[in-house]
Design goal:
Structural class: mainly alpha
Order of helices and strands: HHHHHHHHHHHHHHHHHHHHH
Low-confidence stretches: 394-402, 406-410
Largest sheet: none
Radius of gyration: 22 Å
Number of helices: 21
Length: 410
């Protein structure tokens, strides 16, 4: 055992090894992404580029010749026009690089924002814990990269919103959140995060800027913009709300899907869906309320993670790539376990083990079972345990520095 601990200490002092492994994994994922991109039917990025090209030439972005229909507001298609104008191979590389960079930057920004509570800050000592969390969260990350999804960049916009919000840059924060909503509607849940903090200026600017972003494609579509959005509402939004899917056979993240799994006859009932939405709201507000202790400043990072989990718990549509919105909670909990030795009790490690079992093993083996719901609820419990930690505790100075490499071998 002593030799194993000695080996782990020596590895921790060689962050270049962890970075090399991470780079190798990303290189393999890039090669796999190119294979996906060059299939006859392409993948999601292929659809984005076709829709961007259609918008540029005055055609309907929602009716392109692709297996993967475009299902986002037109603002996203407009931002993709520059990529649609470069060679397809280059567009795939740029998109992969942007997505991977957005994920890594999001994690580093969150560590910096929560440094006091994590008992560490950004530094090379995060290399091995970061690699471990990358492997734990590999399934949704791989799914996003290999399918050319936009979720990693939406997550990055949300993290930039939080960064500006905590720095009291209200208009900038509103712009980042509006951009995230204008690309994908899911982050609209973060408006409740803003409302709970009574940041009225941000709350006012978000809908204004969201509307501005969504209407910006008018410069290309002209008067056809309204018919295009009408098509979007009819073919995607309304159909998704009316027919969210059969939870007894498909993947689900929320309580409504779990109930429908055990009681298939309740899949389309109103009370089941209301109970699912109520559970998501309760989860978000529970962590948020717990973050505000009398006489102490509210901590925003943990509630932010809870609101992103609430997006998953409330969403009627569940797919593996959506699980990247659980990355902030899982990543920060993992870092806190590594560096906050006072917080990492047996109880905390036990709940972390439950999460690993449900998320990494049973969730992947039995995707149509309630294990992902259990994993998300376990993350909520870990957030509640994390938020109860006093923010006035002095930061462990040793944890914020690169660990010393002068460790004796066993």
């Amino acid at each position: 055992m002593n030799r194993l601990l000695g080996l782990l200490r020596r590895l921790r002092c060689r962050p270049a090894w962890a970075l090399a492994i991470l780079a190798a994994l990303l290189a393999v994922l890039l090669l796999q992404t190119y294979r996906q991109a060059n299939r006859p039917e392409g993948y999601d990025l292929t659809s984005y580029l076709l829709s961007a090209d259609a918008l540029w030439h005055g055609d309907n972005p929602y009716q392109t010749d692709t297996r993967y229909p475009y299902i986002y507001p037109l603002f996203f298609a407009m931002t993709m026009i520059p990529l649609a104008m470069v060679p397809y191979g280059l567009a795939n590389f740029v998109w992969f690089a942007l997505s991977a960079t957005g994920l890594i930057a999001s994690c580093l920004i969150l560590v910096r924002l929560a440094a006091e509570e994590l008992k560490t800050d950004v530094g090379w000592h995060l290399a091995w814990p970061g690699l471990a969390m990358f492997l734990i969260l590999f399934s949704p990350v791989q799914n996003n990269l290999l399918n050319g999804q936009v979720n990693l960049l939406v997550l990055f916009c949300c993290v930039l919103f939080l960064h500006a919000f905590m720095k009291n840059h209200d208009v900038v924060a509103a712009a980042w959140l509006a951009a995230a909503i204008a690309i994908k509607l899911l982050p609209v849940v973060l408006l409740l995060f803003v409302l709970m903090r009574r940041r009225w200026k941000v709350l006012l600017w978000v809908p204004v800027l969201t509307a501005a972003f969504c209407l910006l494609p008018w410069v290309l579509a002209g008067k056809n913009l309204w018919s295009l959005y009408g098509n979007y509402l009819d073919t995607f939004l309304m159909s998704s709300l009316k027919n969210p899917g059969d939870h007894s056979r498909g993947m689900f993240f929320g309580l409504h899907g779990t109930i429908a799994y055990f009681l298939p006859g309740t899949a389309s009932s109103l009370w089941t869906n209301l109970l699912g939405l109520s559970t998501a709201a309760f989860v978000m507000l529970a962590v948020d309320v717990a973050s505000k202790q009398p006489g102490r400043p509210r901590r925003d990072v943990w509630p932010f993670c809870a609101y992103l989990l609430g997006c998953l718990l409330a969403s009627p549509i569940a797919e593996t790539h959506h699980l990247v919105f659980a990355v902030p909670a899982a990543f920060l909990i993992g870092v806190k376990l590594c560096f906050d030795r006072g917080w990492a009790t047996t109880v905390v490690w036990t709940w972390a083990g439950v999460f690993l079992a449900c998320f990494c093993i049973f969730g992947k083996l039995y995707k149509t079972s309630p294990f992902y719901f259990a994993a998300l609820m376990t993350l909520v419990i870990l957030l509640l345990l994390a938020v109860r930690r006093s923010p006035t505790d002095p930061i462990d100075a040793d944890a914020t520095k690169t660990p010393s490499c002068n460790t004796e071998s066993a």
